[in-house]
Every structure is written in C-alpha cells, then in structure tokens.
Amino acid sequence: MSRVGAHGAARSTGPFLAPPGRVLSTMNEDGSRRWLEPKPSPGRFLTARRITAYILIALFTLIPYLRMNGKPLILLDIPARRFTLFGTTFFPTDTVLLLFLLLALFLGIFLVTAVLGRVWCGWACPQTVYLEFVFRPLERLIEGDARRRAKRTSASRSLRRALKLAVFVLLSVYLAHTFLAYFVGTEALSHWVTESPAEHPVGFVVMLVTTGLMLLDFGLFREQSCTVVCPYGRFQSVLLDRRSLCVGYDARRGEPRGKHPKRLPLADERRGDCVDCGACVVTCPTGIDIRDGLQMECVHCTQCIDACDAVMDKLKRPRGLVRYGSQDELAGAPRTGVRWRLVLYPLLLTAALGAFVVLLVLRQPAKVTVLRGLGTPFALTQDGSVTNQIRIKVANRGAADASYHIELEGLPEAELIAPENPLFVAAEHSAETSVFVVAPAALFKMGSREVVFRVRDERGFDARERYRLLGPAAGGRR
Ligand code: SF4
Ligand code: SF4
Q: Which among 125, 307, 321, 438 is least buried, having the fewest CB atoms inside 10 angstroms?
C-alpha cells in the first residue's frame, strides 16, 4: 500500500508510486471524499453577495413568467428548435444570426473575465448562489456544525438528517421546475404540474430525472461541480492575465507567516502579517488555501477576504492582506504596456453585436427554402414530358398565421402542380409541401433548366428563389 506525505515529493511503501500530496481539494490522500464544511465569515463581501444572491434567486424564478411583446422573456424550446430571447423568436433558419449572438456572448465573457476575473463564479453562477446561500445555510440550520453534531444522540442525528433530506428534495423539485420552465415554457409546465403524470409520461420522467440531478448536485457533488466538471475554471489560464482582477494573498506583506511570540513587536521586520490562523482556509467553499497563489479551484467568492479582514481587525492591522487585486499588483510589479486583449475584445464584441443587429433589422418575415425531392431526380412520362419533384419549405417568423402562394416563373411552357397552394403556415412555425413541375423534355438541352419559384403572402412578403430543374441531357433522346 502506498503512503503519501502531506507535501513534497512522492514516496511509496509498496508497488505504487504515491502522488506528491493532495491531488484534489475535495479528495483525501487515500482517495476518499474530503467533505467540506466551510465556516461562513461575516463581512462586507458576504453581506453584498447575500443581497445579490437573493435578488438573483428571485430573477431566476421570475424570468420564465415575464413576457415581452407577448412572448416569454427567455424560452429555449429545443424540441421545436425555437429560441425566444427578449421578445424575439429565432428559428433554425436564423443560424447566422444566432452565430453572431453566440460569438458576442463568448466575447462578452472573455472581456468580463479579463477585467473582473471570475466574478461570475463567485457572485452570480446559480451553482454558487443556491449552494452557498440556500442549501448550505439550511444544512447548518438543521444539522449544526461538526461540534454540535458530535454532542447529539444518534437518534437525534438521524432525525435531523432525514429532515434535511426532505427539505433538500422539496428544494430540488422547486429548482427542477424553475430550470425546466426555461425550456418548456410556463404553460406546458402548468399542465405537467396540474394534470396526472399518466397524461405527460415524458414530462414526468424529465422532471424526475432533473430533480434527481439537482439533489445529487447540491446534496452530494457540491463544490466538485466547480472544481472538476465546469469547463470555465479550466479556461482561466488563457482568459486571465496578470492584470485581471482576482482574489489574492499579499505574500510580500504576509510572509514570513507564523504564530509569532507575543514578545516580538508588531513592527518587527522579521514577522509578516499572516499569523497562520487558518481562518481563510476553513472558510473556503472549495477547500483551498489562498496563500498558495492563484488556483483553478478558486471561484473568487471573497470569503477568505472577509475572514482575513476580521483577523486583521482583531490584531489592529490594516485590512487587505487577502484582497481583490491583480497578480501584478499583489507582487508589486509596475503597470506597464497595453493590455491588447482589452483592445481586441471590445472591437470584436462591437463587430459581432453590430452584425447581429444589422442582420436582425434586415431579417425577412419569412424564409423560403427550395429543396430537391427525395428519390429519382426526375421522371420521364410517355408523352415526352419531364416531371421534377421539389420540396418547398416556408418558415413563418411573424406573430400571425399566413398563407403563402407559390408560383413558377421563367418557364411558361411548364406546368406547376401544387396540392397545397396556398400553403398555410402557423405563426412562428414552419411547413413543407411537395410540388411537381412538368415540362417538355425538349427544353432540357444541357440536362437542366433554371426556373424561379415565387412565394408571397397577403402581408407583402414576396420572395423569389432560383432553382435548377433536371432533365434528360439531350432533350429526351437518351
Ligand atoms: S486569515 Fe489572514 S492571517 Fe489568517 S492564515 Fe489566512 S491570510 Fe493568514
Ligand atoms: S480561495 Fe478565497 S476566494 Fe477562492 S474560493 Fe476559497 S475562499 Fe473563495
């Protein structure tokens, strides 16, 4: 069996080489889970984060119920492939628009991270908000800390654990409903809730699975979602630079750390300000020591700032041994040079947003797509005519139902056979119809012939789509 030293080089007492210390902040050196019970540190940042968290929880819950232009503020209807954002619905035919929107979103994240570091993780991410301001406080309220739990009888501990589980299940049910409302809409959700599960078996299973995942995440997996699963933390090394804002420890001021003998005067230059009390470590929700430098596991929650400020207040030393600052500022490096990413990101962001707005303004109220029919490219009939089967797809982006008239232009000798003409398309839906074009074979001199499909409605929408009919290469003499 291998043994591991707390720090330093790997060593082995058996056939396996042991790792040189703890590999994950949430794993003991023997591979078992290291359960974290971060101790909250009251302070100005915790108060501000708590207020922000409660506002965000209210927003997360309310957004699916809010309406703009008669539509949900946000609805990501994946099965129907329709995405409604701030009163505008996007369809699969809006790929380029959505591409620019996504690009702008990513560039916005890059810019915010370059300037403010992981402010999203520590202040606004639903994982942090619900775990640190709902689940963990309730757990502390019901079960108490380790010292209190140890004093209780085993019956009392079991009872409290069962109560906690019941509360967590209820909270997970609420969270699953809130989360799914963004994807199925509040109307569908109210049917799922008020009607028998037998009427919505798929919805019921989706809700059960989502509730189970929420319970697993907030009850068991917890901070590992940030330190192991979430890709955002792993991008930090490229998204941050040495002048990005982060939570950091001022090693120049704090070192040499240690529990100094009382007789050593405070001003003695042999002592640093860090008294190695560990307050910043026991409060950390991801189980790391901020004094080890910038780490991927640090979600910039600021709890170590509040903890250390309280210690400094007691010792009557200036606050800010652990503080918001850049790596350069904490290291005392001078500010020099241009941060090119702060020039490039805003320029690219403006370009992406500009392209999105222009395309949105120019967007037509409907989109017509003309596709070749399935099966053989064309058919020759006994009277010498050529028949092409064509699929015409119309996406109605408008808020009202519409009927689209289909006409053929550019080939007067040809006959258009359209079983559904006009084609009815419900508001914000797509419909597809098959049409047939019958034309004399003699028109297909080079094996094809260009025509134009004109599609228009009563609201003024009028589109022309070019299409190449196929036929015999030598006008019917094959
Ligand atoms: S809370 Fe401050 S003084 Fe205490 S160990 Fe952390 S950095 Fe040092
Ligand atoms: S090191 Fe400090 S800021 Fe980072 S996660 Fe831990 S307590 Fe939060």
A: 438
Distances in whole angstroms, Cα of residue 51 to Cα of each of 48, 58, 178: 5, 11, 20
Per the structure, the complete domain to which residue 383 belongs is given by 366-470
Nearest CA to ligand 2 atom 3: 300
Choose the residue to mutate in 274, 290, 313, 316 for probing ligand 1, maximizing ligand atoms within 8 Å of C-beta.
274
How many domains does one find in the chain? 2
Do the beta carbons of residue 77 and residue 184 sit within 8 Å?
yes
Q: How far apart, in whole angstroms, are the C-alpha atoms of residue 338 and residue 335? A: 9
What is the rounded distance in angstroms from the CA atom of residue 442 to the CA atom of residue 146? 91
Whether residue 249 lies inside any domain: the answer is no
Whether residue 58 is predicted with pLDDT greater than 80 in this model: the reply is: yes
**Rounded to the nearest whole angstrom, what is the distance from the C-alpha of residue 305 to the centroid of ligand 2?**
8
- Mark which of 210, 234, 258 sits at the end of a domain: 234
Instruction: Single out the residue in 177, 212, 234 at which a domain terminates.
Output: 234
C-alpha torsion sign, points 31, 33, 39, 45: positive
CA distance 56 to 124: 7
> Is 308's C-beta closer than 6 angstroms to any atom of ligand 2?
no
Query: What are residue 263's phi and psi, to 5 degrees?
Result: -70, -15
Average pLDDT, the chain: 89
Q: Is residue 478's pLDDT more than 50?
A: no
Over residues 204-241, the pLDDT tens digits come to 999 999 999 999 999 999 999 998 899 888 887 788 88
Nearest-CA residue for ligand 2 atom 1 is 290
User: Confidence class of residue 335 from pLDDT cuts 50, 70 and 90?
Assistant: confident
